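Researcher: Please generate the 3D structure of the following complex. Treat every line as part of one assembly.
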Amino acid sequence: MTADRPLARQDLPIDTTCLARYLIGKKLVRTLPEGVAAGRIVETEAYVIGDAAGHAFRGMTARNRSLFLERGHAYVYVAYGRSDMLNVSSESAGIGAGVLIRALEPLEGIAFMQRNRGVDRLRDLARGPGRLAAALRIDRSLDGLDLCRAGPLWLGDDEREPGDIGRGIRIGISRDTDRPLRFYLRNNPFVSGRKSLNA
DNA sequence: AGTGCGATTGACT
DNA sequence: GTCAATCGCACTA
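Model: Done. Output below.
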């Protein structure tokens, strides 16, 4: 069931908001010596050019430099000292913007994810950006990785129709809070956030 | 060199 | 529903 070929960079929309929507329904595949885990992306957020809520807002630093890579590269950072977060860089090289991957519907390697998370319930494995990273063992060592190449972590296609995509405000930020830059699969149980946000 | 703060989570009432 | 844990890193001096 796992896609065997990564998405072509050429097929990724350059625009950050378009990319965030495009990634809904695509697959995220993690390959380790221990095995393979994969899930369907069901929730994303765009952090666009000039976005006061984005990490690149004040220019390039040691932490955020991967956001400035050409679209389709991983930007991984640690939030609140405990949770790793996976982003996909967007726009052209030299422009700091990206898409936060917030939730997955687990498809493959369920036992591996359960082990990594310490919980069994399917719904809790990758619902939320920190949980997603823990389930797939994503950390800063993957920062800067090309997600359009087969390797330890990559983006794949999914034959299925994505379904009805909802759009709303982003979660957990304190600046630019009103912009509708969050995308999610409607009525999907693996999406994070309050129920009222996901109708 | 010191300070303040998160693109969250899990535990608890 | 509320709330504290926790630490890398950006920012100030």
